[in-house]
Amino acid sequence: MDITREQKLRAFKESVSDTALAFVMNVPIGFGIIAFADWIGIVAVNYDQNIQLVILQNIVFTTVAITRKTFVRLHFEKKNAKKG
After folding, report:
1. pTM here?
2. In the chain, what are the domain boundaries?
3. 23 Cβ contact partners less than 8 Å away, ≥ 6 residues apart
4. Whole-number Å distance between alpha carbons of 19 and 57
């Protein structure tokens, strides 16, 4: 059975919603990780670089998460459609 446009849209909406929640959680975590890495000497960054790194990592992780979650949801939609 083929996946409908509606199912694809629902999967995408679910992915965006879930990833938006994760984004809100990950931004402060990202700042904490970079501050910790700076503190223990793994990286040496100033405040502006810290912000740039957090923004970059969250753009990459958000894009990957939305794509991954959409395809995972569509996979299970297709699998469940075959069963039922």
Report:
1. 0.71
2. 5-83
3. 58, 62
4. 14
